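Colleagues,

For the teaching module next term, I've prepared a clean inverse folding example: a structure given as tokens, and then the sequence designed for it. I'd like students to try predicting residues themselves before seeing the answer, so please don't circulate the second half yet.
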């Protein structure tokens, strides 16, 4: 994965590339990473990789342990605490969304709901995670509050790691889709109270499912990890 030329500083490009490797499952939770191996993979010198790794550690996605650095491995308690923060922030965001949501936003949300339905029918876990993220991103952008957007994304990133570690039940995919449709329906009606209550219930249902699945999910087999990497590279 050699980085393409861009106007962004090289360390920012390295950060974004490594972040995608982590969120796509190309680098697994608990896996050790080094400046040298990542620099070789990205086709750049170790210096910008070092800066990118520091930022990822600040973001809570990498963790230093002695002389080595690993992708974080979340505990059930971590998941509960992160969702407690996320619930408060997502509810605040949906309250602001009602004031700013445009017809273009609503149309984009409908497109994402249709894409999620297709991914759910095909049991494409990675695509479902991406679409779910895009759905919440579209809502966040409509808040017109960059500080709120930044805070939610900071809390949400580690939770994406938890999602790619568990076996995603088809029933859960349909539950998420139902929740998202209900939220959009309330937003189309301009019902801020209903939208916020649905978002709160949605966050709590997410937390409950991931917490339970995380407790019982066996580690992914080597074949499953390879399959996840192949799908993430499409």
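(Answer key — instructors only)
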């Amino acid at each position: 994965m050699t980085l393409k030329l861009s106007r962004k500083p090289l360390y920012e490009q390295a950060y974004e590339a490594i972040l995608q490797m982590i969120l796509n499952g190309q680098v697994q939770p608990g896996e050790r990473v080094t400046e040298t191996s990542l620099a070789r993979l990205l086709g750049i010198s170790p210096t910008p990789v070092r800066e990118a790794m520091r930022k990822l550690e600040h973001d809570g996605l990498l963790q230093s342990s002695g002389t080595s650095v690993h992708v974080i491995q979340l505990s059930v308690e971590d998941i509960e605490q992160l969702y407690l923060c996320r619930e408060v922030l997502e509810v605040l965001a949906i309250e602001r969304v009602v004031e700013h949501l445009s017809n273009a936003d609503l149309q984009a949300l409908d497109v994402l709901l249709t894409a999620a339905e297709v991914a759910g029918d095909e049991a494409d876990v990675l695509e479902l995670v991406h679409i779910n993220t895009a759905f919440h991103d579209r809502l966040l952008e409509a808040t017109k509050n960059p500080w709120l957007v930044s805070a939610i994304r900071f809390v949400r990133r580690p939770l994406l790691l938890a999602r790619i570690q568990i076996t995603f039940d088809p029933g859960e995919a349909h539950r998420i889709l139902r929740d998202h449709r209900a939220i959009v329906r309330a937003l189309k009606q301009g019902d801020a109270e209903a939208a916020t209550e649905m978002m709160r219930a949605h966050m709590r249902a997410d937390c409950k499912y991931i917490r339970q699945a995380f407790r019982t999910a066996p580690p992914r087999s080597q074949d499953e990890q390879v399959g996840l990497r192949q799908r993430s590279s499409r």
